[in-house]
Predict the structure.
Amino acid sequence: MVKKNIDQKAKKLLIGYLKKLKKGDIPDFLESLLSSAEIKDISRRLLAAKMLASGITYEEIESEMGMSSGTTNKIRFKTKGSPALRKLFKED
């Protein structure tokens, strides 16, 4: 049985640790916690979000990445209006 509020506590812990990491420590941190498939999935979602932000269409993303329009739509919905992502994408 999952304890009440454990997901919120775990998310807070993750965010807190991410804030403390130095740039060079991030790859090791991610590789220590995530499988290569999980890193690949997160990386691909980030790339799709960046492509959407730059005006690339669902069809182009599907063609280039093999990502379904359903997944692309979920990414658009989850990332739309994210100030953090907008800032990161502008810095590129």
Summary: DSSP finds six helices and no strands in the chain. Residues 33 and 39 are 10 Å apart (CA to CA).
